[in-house]
Write a structure and sequence with these properties.
about 425 residues, alpha/beta, Aspartate Aminotransferase, domain 1, Aspartate Aminotransferase, domain 2, 2 domains, 7-stranded mixed beta sheet, binds pyridoxal-5'-phosphate, pyridoxal phosphate, porphyrin biosynthesis, Aminotrans_3
């Protein structure tokens, strides 16, 4: 069979996909992007037959790796004859919502959507509808999807995902504060307390560094929002059903948010997002409520089946333990190599997330700190290509997390450490 090589595919892609890739993230550190032909557990094989240990895992959704267990595959097979059911729930959608509600104590009701972006847009709209207020507080270096209501104005050096020319009306209603800075957010509440609909925050800032909250920070957010009648919205699109195990980061930090957004792993590899929270708030989404929210593909039976079966499998097996153990071995191993060979890097992470970041001062970036254009370029032009050459696939941008999946093995970890 005469197969297209990556070079041929790139030429075709450039004609129909902006930049030749399916993201705005600059690919092409190597001459052209990697065209994956086939997944194989924790690895991928490209169009030229090269095999890589894959730590991108689709940027997170592939909790169980590329080859999903038989139970997930047969659950999906059973649903492929059903299309989306606009305005009509299916039993599998109810079951999926019940699963989330059972495992996340703050969630009583769930609305499924189709991406993490849609989930956070909807959560912001819901918070605005529920409180009758407009302002939303977000964290510097936080990320909630490609949408204007929470995307910050970038610094133009490619280190912050941004939307040029955010309309003044959006910018005015989005207040940005540094993560982990209690003073800054307290001041914002002192000045705007009665105008703030919500604080939207990732429990762990996963998109610049992997920055964990300082002790007491989430409690401060909880107290400030409660005292001022604003909602606390945890964006768990990355962390949900991954970090902190089944009850997600709420389990890790012991904070009860008003609303939570989910995405990635809860779709079992298919497109998904979800908003969950207390009945009183979620009922704003009913015909009697103030907030319109609907989507053609929401609650698609195939996605529901894949997601529910994946989460059930994870609940019944040692999925999180395995991933967290491997990630710890990987982080420890990488820290040793990095300390010896490249002290300008730092290895950060928690649970099954990890990242190798460039730092200016030998410390991991904090508060979503900007690590500089030169370092981004270095990642794109030197570091990532070198790793690819050595058979390890990392995210296309140094800010993006790397994900350990259940399919990864000790051999994947060893090869990656050797590749550095
Ligand atoms: N929120 C967070 C915390 C994310 O990390 C992401 C994506 O990585 C999103 C929202 C957007 O999700 P999606 O890419 O599914 O639209």
């Amino acid at each position: 069979m005469n197969r297209d090589t990556s070079r041929d595919l790139y030429d075709r892609a450039l004609g129909v996909l902006p930049g030749g890739v399916n993201s705005s993230v600059r690919a092409a550190p190597q001459p052209y992007p990697t065209f994956v032909q086939k997944g194989d557990a924790g690895r991928v094989i490209d169009a030229d037959g090269n095999k890589y240990v894959d730590w991108v895992m689709g940027l997170g959704p592939l909790l169980l790796g590329h080859d999903t267990p038989e139970t997930v595959q047969s659950a999906v097979q059973k649903r492929t004859s059903e299309g989306p059911m606009y305005g009509m729930p299916t039993e599998v959608e109810i079951e999926h919502a019940e699963f989330i509600a059972r495992h996340v104590p703050s969630v009583e009701m769930v609305r499924f959507v189709n991406s993490g972006t849609e989930a956070t847009v909807s959560a912001v709209r819901l918070a605005r509808g529920y409180t009758g207020r407009e302002k939303v507080v977000v964290m510097q270096g936080g990320y909630h999807g490609a949408q204007e209501s929470t995307l910050v104005e970038g610094d133009g050096d490619g280190t912050t995902p941004s939307s040029p020319g955010i309309p003044a009306s959006f910018a005015e209603h989005t207040l940005t504060v540094p993560f982990n800075d209690e003073e800054a957010i307290t001041e914002v509440f002192e000045e705007h307390g009665d105008e703030i609909a919500a604080v939207l925050v990732e429990p762990i800032l996963a998109n610049k560094g992997i920055v964990e909250p300082r002790e007491g920070y989430h409690e401060t957010l909880r107290d400030l929002t409660a005292d001022h009648g604003a909602l606390l919205v945890f964006d768990e699109v990355i962390t949900g059903f991954r970090v902190g195990g089944l009850s997600c980061a709420q389990g890790k930090y012991g904070i009860t948010p008003d609303l939570t957004t989910f995405g990635k792993v809860i779709g079992g590899g298919f497109p998904i997002g979800a908003i969950g929270g207390r009945t009183e708030i979620m009922e704003e989404l009913t015909p009697a409520g103030d907030v319109f929210q609907a989507g053609t593909f929401s609650g698609h039976p195939v996605t529901m089946a894949a997601g529910l079966e994946t989460l059930t499998y994870a609940a019944e097996n040692d999925v999180y333990e395995h991933m967290n153990d491997l990630a710890e071995q990987l982080r420890d191993g990488l820290r040793d190599v990095v300390a010896e060979r490249a002290p300008e890097y730092s290895v950060v992470g928690t649970d099954s997330l990890f990242k190798v970041v460039f730092t200016r001062d030998g410390e991991a970036p904090r508060n979503g700190a900007d690590v500089g254009r030169a370092n981004v370029q270095r990642w794109n032009r030197v570091f990532r290509p070198q790793m690819l050459e050595n058979g390890v696939m990392l995210s296309q941008n140094q800010f993006e997390s790397q994900f350990v999946s259940y399919a990864h093995t000790a051999a994947d970890v060893e090869e990656t450490i050797e590749a550095y």
